[in-house]
Amino acid sequence: MQRQQSRQGRDERAQQRPPEIYPLPRDSRAVAEAQAGQCFNYGLRVERLLTWDAEKWELTRQAKERFAKQAAGRKVLVFTHPEHRRLISAHRQRWEKMLEACEQCGYQVRRFTMCAAERIVVGLGAESVLETNIRLHRIYGFPIIPGSALKGLARSYALWQAAEQLGVPALSLEERSARDKTGARSPIQKLEAYLDEPAEDRRAPLLDELKRDMAIPPGSSLHQWSLAAVEEITKPLRLAFGTIGSAGKVIFFDAVPTDPAKLKLDLDVMTPHYSDYYMKKLERGQPIPPADYLNPNPVPFLTVAPGSEFLFAVTCGSKSPSNQERLALVDIAVNWLRAGLADIGAGAKTVAGYGLWR
Fold first, then answer.
1. CB–CB of 116/308 below 8 Å?
2. Secondary structure of 3-62 in HEC code, one letter for each residue
3. Which of 19, 107, 204, 262 is least crowded, fewest Cβ atoms below 10 Å from its Cβ?
4. How far is CA 37 from each of CA 33, 43, 115, 170, 260, rounded to the nearest angstrom?
């Protein structure tokens, strides 16, 4: 009897629940309603095939709960369907043809393969109705690593390498916080300003400003470097990534999966405990403190699973002064990128151990 009443209660709640619809044009909605369960494009699943409340016109709680339940079960999404294999293989072939065309035009191209050592998530903060996101191919829905992200990673590694060689120290968290309050730049930021300056006559004052920074100890090797020596050390970095007034000569291509069998998407969960505090909510007119009695808020998100293998490519343009210089520059850029992938990590949550490659 109790079981029957419980079933009746669920049926009544289901009838009272507002209708769920796909927020799409009428013809597209009809296709989605008929074939959503057969969709193998993960990009469409997390961007378009989510049901909305037809009355409030917002994402339904049921859609979020379904995604959260998958995440709670750590469900792994694989790319073993024949259509996945066909699309990923065809995309890689076009990618290879593009690189071959670059080589025929005189570009120096270097390719290499790396495997994800930890979970990878690029584009986590991009706009999404699910609060989190991941960078997927816009058309085919499989993960890629944008060339812009790889360029930024390589530049970060090159910047820190140059800072270490020149004797430019990193600030502690307390020192950085104090400078943020006053708007003062850190030594690394001053070095970056020096690198970004296109005019040679303006770089000497910037280097002098860096040397006078209070965080640079008197015995630092930075004081021993002349302007000419610093210019020689930082020349590859400026050539590769450019300055404010000129583009860099090195191009970083999007990284693509090597093999569908070695590609997986893993559902992960982060559980921030102090969301009410961060959102500056009030309780009885007072700000809510970051206390342990606050309820955790599980937030599921997609990641590229460890073991997934990707192809990377870097090239140097044909307008450089000599073939030898192009060859040397692209090799240096590849070393920066490989080291950055292995030591710093690509994408979000690298401080928590995400983003590392081997």
1. yes
2. HHHHHHHHHHHHHHCCCEECCCCHHHHHHHHHHHHHCCCHHHHHHCCCCEECCCCCECHH
3. 19
4. 8, 14, 31, 51, 21
Q: Quick check: helix, strand or coil at residue 82?
A: helix
- What does pTM read for this prediction? 0.84
Q: Which residue is it, tokens 């920066």? A: 336
How confident is the model over 246-265, as pLDDT tens digits? 888 999 999 999 998 899 88
Instruction: Residue 88: name the closest of 310, 346, 358 by CA.
Output: 310
Q: Does an H or E element contain 309, and which?
A: strand 309-316
Question: How many Å apart are CA 46 and CA 143, to the nearest integer?
Answer: 13
Phi, psi of 283 (to 5 degrees): -130, 115
Smallest CA-to-CA distance from 48 within 124, 136, 147 is with: 136
Question: Which two tokens mark 337?
Answer: 């990128």
Do the strands 242-243 and 246-247 form a parallel or antiparallel pair, or are they unpaired?
Answer: antiparallel
Q: How many CB atoms lie within 10 A of CB 164?
A: 11
* 3-class SS string, 174-209: HHHHHHHHHCCCCHHHHHHHHHHCCCHHHHHHHHHH
End-to-end Cα spacing for the chain: 60
| pLDDT tens, residue by residue, 28-44 | 888 888 877 777 787 77
